[in-house]
Amino acid sequence: MTIQRAKRSSRFFARGSAWGDMLALIYITAWHWVAFIFCVLIFLALDLGVFHRRAHVVRFREALLWTSIWFCLAMLFAVWLRSARGQKEGLQFVTGYLIELSTLD
After folding, report:
1. pLDDT-derived band of residue 36, with 50, 70 and 90 as boundaries?
2. Whole-number Å distance between alpha carbons of 12 and 2
3. Alpha helices (H) in the chain, listed in sequence order
4. Which of 12, 38, 82, 103 could be a cystine partner for 6, CB 3.0 to 4.6 Å?
5. Cβ atoms of 19 and 32 closer than 8 Å
């Protein structure tokens, strides 16, 4: 969607923000944050409470499997993001994810 087309439609502008006519595709509400925090807690509970219930030495094969699973979930999200918000935002997510994944923490 071009900016000119978006400017013609007032539904693309964030209302009530301090930024005035700032272009936004979605207005973030408290419910968005609640859903985000809920998803993070669900994934954390699954990772720590279900999949890794007992303490053990993690072998290379298991680490590779779990890394692949989480990577595939992130790429599924990127595909959804691209279809919902556009190629630019999908590419920004993938770029940020790969930079974060490549760090040696």
Report:
1. very high
2. 12
3. 3-8, 30-45, 60-85, 87-102
4. 12
5. no
Phi, psi of 10 (to 5 degrees): -70, -10
In the structure encoding, which two tokens stand for residue 24, read together?
């936004």
pLDDT score, position 13? 45
Reference 7, options 23, 31, 27, 30; nearest CA is 23
HSE-up of residue 79 (Cα within 13 Å, Cβ side)? 6
Domain spans in the chain, listed from the N-terminal domain onward:
1-55, 57-105
Residue 96 confidence (pLDDT): 94
* Nearby residues of 13 by Cβ (< 8 Å), 6 or more positions away: 21, 22, 23, 24
Confidence at residue 91, expressed as pLDDT on a 0 to 100 scale: 95
The distance in angstroms from the start CA to the end CA of the chain is 38
